[in-house]
Amino acid sequence: MKKLFLKSGLYVFLILIVLEGVARIFHLGKDTPTRFLDEHKVEKWVPNQNGFSVTGNRRQNFSEFHINNSGFNSYREFTPDQNRIEVALVGDSFIEGFHQDYYNSIGKKIENDLPKIEVYEYGYAGYDFADQLHLIYSYKKQFDLIDHVILGIKFSNDLTRDEYKVVTGRLALDTPINKLLKKSKLLVYCKSIGLLDPPQELLYKTRKFFRSKNPEKPLDEQEALRIKNEKEKTYLANFEGLIDKYGYDKNRFTLLLDSRITSPIFISYLEQNKFKYIDFSRSFENSKRSTTLIYDRHWNNHGRTLIAKVISTYLKKKNTGDPK
Amino acid sequence: MLFNSLEFFIFLPIVFIAYWYIFKKRIRAQNIFLLVASYVFYGLWDWRFLFLILASTVVDFFVGQAIYSNDSNTKKKIWLWVSVLFNVGLLGFFKYYNFFINSWVDFVSIVGYDIKSTWTLQIILPVGISFYTFQTMSYSLDIYYKRLTPTKDFISFATFVSFFPQLVAGPIERASNLLSQITSKRTFNYVQCTDGLKLILWGLFKKIVIADALAPIVDDIFANYGSYPASTLILGVSLFSFQVYGDFSGYSDIAIGTAKLFGIELMSNFKFPIFSRNVAEYWQRWHVSLSTWFRHYVYIPLGGNRVGKLKSIRNIVIIFLVSGFWHGANWTFIAWGAFHALLYIPVFLMGRNRIYMNNVVAENRWFPSVIEIFQILITFSLVTFSRVFFRSESITDAFGFLEQIYSNFTFETYEHPLGYRMIDYFVLLGVFVLYEYRIRRDERSPFKFKSKIVRFIAYALVILGMMLFFDDNIDRSFIYFQF
Q1: Which one of A5, A7, A11, A186 would you mutate to disrupt binding with B, by most B Cβ within 10 Å of its Cβ?
Q2: B474 Cβ partners below 8 Å, 6+ apart?
Q3: CATH code of the domain made up of A74-167+229-317
Q4: A288 touches chain B (CB under 8 A)
Q5: How distant is the Cα of A294 from the closest Cα of chain B, in angstroms?
Q6: Are B130 and B168 in contact (CB under 8 A)?
Q7: Which residues of B touch A297 (CB under 8 A)?
Q8: Which tens digit of pLDDT belongs to each residue from B218-241?
Q9: Domain boundaries, chain A
Q10: ipTM of the complex
Q11: Residue A69: how many CA atoms within 13 Å on its side-chain side?
């Protein structure tokens, strides 16, 4: 029996080493750049990192990222100047674009369409509207030099806070233990393909079994509607609170949104209060090809091309003085 | 509890260690422990159905003794009927009741009557009922045919009925094989254990990599057959052949391997049926425990092939129809069985039904002959064709599927429903078939390599394959659980 355990243990150990090697050689697991909090308490990536983002069991999506001096994924450095036309794209992982080669990003696609302008992509996974406005507020001098600022916003996700606070949970992803664990490409790979979900689920179920005595009752329709309306009111109040607190230049700032998933109340609020916005919903709706990746809901190359086109069209119109 | 779940990988080592460390000194203690473990294993699905297993166990335990202790043949027969009626009654109620009612209503409506209220019930099919009822029945039948003396040890008998590795989907064991091992002392055997672990690994590969990876494609093609051309439908049913083979033979390998960990040898259930050279050989290699069950307990008692040609043909038809019906309460399975009877009868009449019983394709050779390749392809195509009935939801769907192949006989490249690369699956299947061919002589030794390094590489590749094709979002239960 001892022999069985010893040999099995040895085999498991050796197989793990081989698999770690395979995961490294074939780059099956994604690289995660290191994050940090700068002097303005803005969370971003540590500058000058390179790596590859991988999605899918069999590397179905493989792309390179490059973190520039400003701490964002971009092929160019952000050096705004009064003599050039610059556009800033501010947003979450959709703008950050780890799912596509950094030299083929939304910004690059816009630049290809409008060669005279420079696009700076301030994208960071998890950024909500508070993060975005706080970033602009913290780097006011830099942003004041930028001609157009486009802020990606998802009404249901991005307005849950009325002021910026450091998201400690996100920073905790870079604790020494997590950093150490991320060094194992095999572990990163297993996590990304969901192989570690069953143990986590089991742990969750066990905890729930011991803790919860009164199972949550499903909400009836009226109650669900009431909660939804309440949330929408709060989000709208948060939007107002955030722009009051950190400032919002209606002339230069434009929101980028998908009206299919945005509350009509918010849209009519924007229209009534003359907030400019770009709605890409029609462009996505008319697309015959899929606009998202296979393994996650982020935009694929086609989706990004459509977004770039929508923004370019908007900018072209804006420069000719054409009202929205 | 599924073999391919985390719960099982926590459950198995605990049971294994307790079995060999805590209970190893007394067989009775080991058997009680195995019984409790088996009931826990089953009870985690639905504890209420444990009473059915218990009832089936109690009935056949006493029926076995009654058959044995009675001298009168009539009384023996009566007791045998008690067992058969009880077990078939369980199956009839839980598995076939609604089918019979609905078929009766359909039949009556064809004649011109309209029955407004039917008495169908909302019945959940207890997992494994078709397997353990057949296993307990075989015990009473063996005693009746004087092939076996009944056990007086209820615990051992209950363990035989509910032995968890094979409880829910076989192999359907005979008491002469399994019960005799349960009543004898088991000693820990290192080689047996490692063989068991290897079989578990290979079974998991077949389940996770072959069956589960193909499932979304097969599901998509069968669900939307009306909108696909013939090339896609043929692809779908061919992939289903591999899916069902990977799923069920994978389960059997894990069951046999798990039993080995407890010092118990179960019978083989699959012997590389994809390399069968005719339909008769296919049935000697596919779901062996069920085929032999029907041969021993239905076909031979009916006279087998020792009666005239016509009666033999009748017996073959009965066997295949019953076998089809065993799979499920649906006309599709009966059609599937009938189709196999039609395939088998010519082979039987030509006297070629037993010619491949004791050899494998390319016996003593590296490569099969051209004729063998041709035979394998023909057999695979015919068996695959029959799977249209096996997989379709209804007879109408099955004929709709075939009609679509005929009416839309065009070729189009198929795109995976989730957008994955199809080439990955073709390469995977190619490698799998070649590997199965390499190991075709011994279904119990999937990693038979002289070199330790090669063996180690094979383990690593198999695990890597599981990771490359693992899909957390699909239903991981085994196809044969529904039977």
Answers
A1: A11
A2: B212, B215, B216
A3: 3.40.50.1110
A4: no
A5: 6
A6: no
A7: none
A8: 999 999 999 999 999 999 999 999
A9: 74-167+229-317
A10: 0.83
A11: 4
